[in-house]
Amino acid sequence: MTKLPVIVKAGGTSEVFDPQRLVVSLMRAGAGAYAAERISRTITDMVVPGMSSREVYSRAFALLRKESRPVAARYALRRALLELGPTGHPFEDFVSHLYSTIGWHVETRKIIRGVCVSHEVDFYASHPGESVYLAAELKYHNDPNYKTDLKVALYVKSRFDDIFACDPAIRACPIDRGLLVTNTKFTSEAIAYAECAGVELLGWGYPVNDSLFMRMTQAKVYPITALTRLSRAEKNLLLDTHVIAVDQVVKDRRLLDPLHLSADRIGELLAEAEGLLSLPATSHEL
Predict the structure, then answer these.
(1) Which residues lie across from 80 on neighbouring strands?
(2) Which of 29, 66, 118, 255 has the most CB atoms around it within 10 Å of its CB?
(3) Predicted confidence (pLDDT) per residue in 204-222, tens digit
(4) Buried b (16+ CB within 10 A) or exposed e, 124-147
(5) φ and ψ at 165, to 5 degrees?
(6) Please, are residues 190 and 153 in contact by the beta-carbon 8 Å criterion?
(7) Which domains does the chain have, with CATH numbers?
(8) Helix extents (H) in 47-88
(9) Which of 212, 208, 258, 213 is nearest to 238 (CA)?
């Protein structure tokens, strides 16, 4: 049996390349079993000791894009979230759009009085008919290896504690639940503290059965930066005009007007967007 090469992960650690893990990841993105196996075999033949995991991903993405652009777009969702930067506002708007799509009434960057001081919360939402009020602190990162840590969880807990401590005899308490959201991952310490202290977390792979990735695929809400037929400059222009999600351009193609695209390119772009939205939801992150 041929010995599999060791590749280098982005954080500098090493691991043995696992072709079957790549197959599973491709299939979760929506690739068929035959295509996933074929791409995995091709990549396995290319991998050499010391190759970076990023290069493995890039080669797999390029092959998958030739098979199906919508599937490639979902395979690259984590990277697409990173492209919402450099500021955190597009990510805040994207999470707000995600919650709005599933029935929440959302406000962003809202000032709420605590017992001691006032706080600007990135995201404030209520659910009609349920009398539930949710506030969230959003932490956006450009670096996929950066993890939201214990210090952030402690900071968010203290802010929400100040809001939760309001006296209902004096004024209405405006929040029932506090949430910490990130586009990347949490450290194990942050998760342990949050589970103990009652801080709700939402990130790329957490909670395991209800992660940000799974919510996106279930709601059919994807960042506009996922579309493979858009250049980086075109993505930035759409973000500048507050177009942050794929379903927005499917519902109203006039949102693409600032790009001045040809009719053929608009058709190709919408075909990819509609194909992405038609992919079935998945129960696991990539």
Answers:
(1) none
(2) 29
(3) 989 988 999 999 999 999 9
(4) bbbeeeeeebbbbbbbbbeebeeb
(5) -80, 5
(6) yes
(7) 6-67 (no CATH), 79-286 (3.40.1350.10)
(8) 53-67, 69-75, 77-82
(9) 258
